[in-house]
Design a protein that fits this description.
Number of helices: 11
Protein name: L-threonine 3-dehydrogenase
EC number: 1.1.1.103
Helix content: 25-40%
CATH topology of the largest domain: Quinone Oxidoreductase, Chain A, domain 1
Bound molecules: nicotinamide-adenine-dinucleotide, threonine
Structural class: alpha/beta
InterPro entries: ADH-like_C (IPR013149), ADH-like_N (IPR013154), ADH_Zn_CS (IPR002328), ER (IPR020843), GroES-like_sf (IPR011032), NAD(P)-bd_dom_sf (IPR036291), SDH-like (IPR045306)
Strand content: 25-35%
Organism: Haloprofundus marisrubri
Keywords: Metal-binding, NAD, Oxidoreductase, Zinc
CATH architecture of the largest domain: Alpha-Beta Complex
Number of domains: 2
Length: 343
């Protein structure tokens, strides 16, 4: 089968690999649609994210959907022909794992996560995956939308972490896929107004289309904008989804007293100055949000009910053979989401 493999010297090339055999609790999925995530592009550019280093050939891609073509002997709830999306993180599930036992499985230290060295991802014609982490898609949900349940899940988890609710003023920095999908979920939760910031007009346009007050922080003062939009109250919830140091620093200036700041964007340099006294004086809840847990069923429902739009994020779709060109397009920074489709 064909796969797109990133070599140790960071060449992204098509390589032939053996088609995997599904284990007894696995399904074999013929891939149909796989999104290109910022982390894929980061590995492509730098060969590492923190301690995860591409020191042997790695199949990228973790936003995936396809069709079941074979099932393991012990799988009885999925069948050949089912359209599925794959949750890319599979925790260890051991009884002695505090996180798996407590159901905070996204925090399992021994998780296997697609396209995170040494675990291969989904830019492959076939992927064998545990059936427990494969979710059937209703007919009304396209395979492209199914693949984008992964970044949508990040948005769901961040809104759950923040407890976004009816009438909350929500400020989101960064209008990439994560910021925009957090915005979609916040809107469904009843947030109003939503103030979104970025430094690129093309990204801000996407936020505006989705009903947000869009602020270009390269030109305008975000603090004044949020003050105006909330009649001086400031934001109930601040979601930082850019990873940019100035935006992270800014979070404390745009949140109301007693409000919540959730950091989801990963900073290139994680040492960002914070006025800790402000956190105390204003009694802020300062939270991190890491991947997601129990979000796939919710995401499928949101899509089936047409409550959120994920396909509107997609700028282009290319075949697996053009994967390198597709990565270069995403690398330019002007697109929100590029997809690889399979015949
Ligand atoms: N915590 C998690 O589980 C998790 C999961 C996925 C992604 N992430 C991280 O979330 C962040 C967003 O992911 P993405 O895929 O949307 O990335 P992205 O690069 O597509 O989007 C980031 C956006 O932030 C904008 N930006 C840059 N400087 C800014 C500033 N000063 N103020 C406001 N916006 C600014 C960029 O122009 C860009 O549009 C990344 O740091 C990514 O690594 C975290
Ligand atoms: C969650 C996922 O989208 C992210 N890129 C990660 O590897 O953690």
């Amino acid at each position: 089968m064909r796969t797109a493999v990133l070599s140790e010297d960071l060449q992204l090339q098509i390589a032939e690999r053996d088609r995997p055999e599904p284990g007894e609790n696995e399904v074999l999925v013929r891939m149909r649609s796989v999104g290109i995530c910022g982390s894929d592009v980061h590995y492509y550019e730098h060969g590492r994210i923190g301690d995860y280093v591409v020191d042997s050939p790695l199949v990228l891609g973790h936003e995936s959907a396809g069709e079941v073509v074979e099932t393991g002997a012990a799988v009885d709830d999925l069948h050949v022909g089912d359209r599925v999306t794959l949750e890319p993180g599979v925790p260890c599930g051991r009884d002695d794992c505090e996180y798996c036992r407590s159901d905070e499985y996204n925090l399992c230290p021994d998780v296997h996560f697609m396209a995170t060295p040494p675990d291969d991802g989904a830019f492959a014609e076939f992927v064998a995956w545990p059936a427990d982490y494969a979710y059937r898609l209703p007919e009304s949900v396209s395979l492209q939308a199914g693949a984008l349940i992964e970044p949508l899940s990040v948005g769901i988890h961040v809104c759950r972490r923040a407890g976004v609710g009816l009438g909350d003023a929500v400020y989101i920095s960064g209008c990439g896929p994560i910021g925009l999908l957090a915005m979609e979920v916040a809107r469904v939760a009843g947030a109003e107004p939503i103030i979104a910031t970025d430094v690129l007009p093309s990204k801000l346009e996407r936020a505006r289309e989705r009903g947000a007050i869009a602020v270009n922080v390269a030109e305008d003062d975000p603090i004044a904008a949020v003050e105006k939009a909330t009649d001086g109250r400031f934001a109930d919830v601040v979601i930082e989804a850019s990873g940019a140091a100035p935006a992270i620093e800014n979070t404390l200036d745009v949140v109301r007293r007693g409000g919540t700041v959730v950091l989801v964007g990963l900073a290139a340099d994680s040492v960002v100055p914070f006025d800790t006294n402000e956190i105390i004086d204003n009694e802020l809840d300062l939270l991190g949000s890491f991947r997601y847990r129990h979000t796939y069923p919710t995401a499928i429902e949101l899509l089936a009910n047409e409550q959120v739009d994920v396909e509107g994020l997609v700028d282009f779709e290319m075949g697996l053979d053009d994967v390198d060109e597709a990565f270069r397009r995403v690398q330019s920074g002007e697109t929100v989401k590029g997809m690889i489709s399979f015949d």
